[in-house]
Design goal:
379 residues, globular, TIM Barrel
Length: 379
């Protein structure tokens, strides 16, 4: 999220200590739900494990208390996206142990997984791509740093494969508009393409080598925030030899994009046809209310409204349907909602108790699924 993640970096550190609560169980023998659609509808559920530990209860649209993974599975969600930080020392979540839990819960219910490598101990985004602390000593030795990236990527996938948790999709970096693995502060000062290309290609090769060694298919993705940035970035990447990937992933938040909803198909078509890659919008969101459910300031406000889509449950649902239509028109093949279950809890960020996203989830302030959840069924 180009501007959204920039706001995160100044707005939140994530949640403080939380009490563990009992959660619903899932059935590991569940079969994958049938979904005849070739269009992928997904949800980034990276916060869900933390929300459960913080005491959140979730309810389906009928008002029945249910495990959130089950709610999304029953809504026919195809894919769960999960972020992975290297060794975060400021949170107990989005590390390898938490990611294993999230993937196991998603796969137990037949949902596929997109694993999002941030290659950082903290949020990675266009404004900041900070090298993990463990790799800081070699940040200026590009060949050694590239080997560290390769070995880490391969090792994570090998461990997941041994547990039967290999993801179907892997993002090599998160919103890599700027050069990856920067240090020490990670700020964006331009792109040194020879260095950037070597690092990205080593990550992509680790995915290819893992798939080959394990005899499994893993589809790789590069992710850029906002379509207007993807248009120039993928051109430069191609010129510098970054070509061996399967998917273009983009974040699309109309509030922070120069591309309108009406203009999106042309941008998507240019990307898919120019680079002959599949394309998925891997992050979007839309508020269903302007009311705040806690003391944590909400990131999406009235300025997030798109003409024709009022800030309401119906407006949120209609926005998702319209966005899918525009993605399809351009030849895109998927849409993932970012953090639709980041509800308010007793846990706190540095700036307030609760969630900075509670008005943009797919759950009302009573934690009951709203009509936006129907989007996943293809209604």
């Amino acid at each position: 999220m180009e501007y959204l993640q920039t706001l995160f970096l100044s707005l939140l550190l994530l949640f403080s200590s939380c009490e563990l609560t009992e959660e619903s169980t899932v059935n590991p023998d569940s079969e994958e739900p049938e979904n005849p659609s070739t269009f992928i509808r997904g949800a980034d559920l990276s916060y869900v494990n933390e929300m459960l530990d913080c005491g959140a209860s979730y309810f389906d649209e009928a008002g029945n208390k249910e495990n959130p993974y089950v709610i999304f599975q029953k809504a026919n969600t195809d894919l769960v996206r999960v972020r992975l930080w290297h060794h975060p020392d400021w949170t107990d979540y989005s590390d390898f142990e938490d990611v294993k839990t999230a993937i196991s819960r998603a796969k137990a219910l037949g949902m596929k997984v997109l694993l999002d490598f941030h290659y950082s101990d903290d949020w990675a985004d266009p404004a900041k791509q900070k090298v993990p602390a463990a790799w800081l000593p070699v940040v200026d030795n590009t060949p050694v740093l590239a080997d560290s990236l390769y070995n880490y990527t391969f090792s994570v996938l090998r461990q997941l494969n041994a547990l039967g948790l290999l993801p179907e999709y892997v993002q090599v970096g998160n919103e890599t508009n700027s050069e990856i693995l920067r240090g020490p502060d990670g700020t964006n000062t331009g792109i040194n393409w020879p260095r950037n290309a070597l690092l990205l290609n080593r990550g992509l090769k680790a995915v290819r080598d893992a798939a080959s060694e394990f005899g499994k298919e893993i589809q790789s993705m590069l992710h850029i925030a906002q379509p207007e940035n993807a248009l120039w970035w993928f051109g430069q990447a191609t010129q510098n030899g970054v070509t061996d990937y399967d998917w273009i992933g983009i974040s699309y938040y109309p509030l922070w994009s120069d591309v309108t909803l009406e203009g999106l198909p042309a941008a998507v078509r240019t990307l898919t046809e120019t680079y002959q890659k599949r394309l998925m919008v891997v992050e979007t969101a839309y508020p269903f209310t302007l009311d705040n459910n806690d003391s944590a300031n909400n990131i999406l406000g009235a300025d997030a409204a798109v003409a024709g889509f009022p800030i309401s449950e119906q407006g949120q649902y209609d926005y998702l349907k319209a966005l899918e239509k525009k993605i399809r028109e351009g030849g895109g093949e998927g849409l993932i909602y970012w953090e639709p279950a980041w509800v308010s809890t007793a846990c706190s960020t540095q700036w307030g108790q609760g969630s900075h996203w509670d008005n943009a989830t797919l759950f009302g302030h009573d934690n009951q699924a709203n009509i936006g959840m129907r989007y996943f069924t293809g209604e």
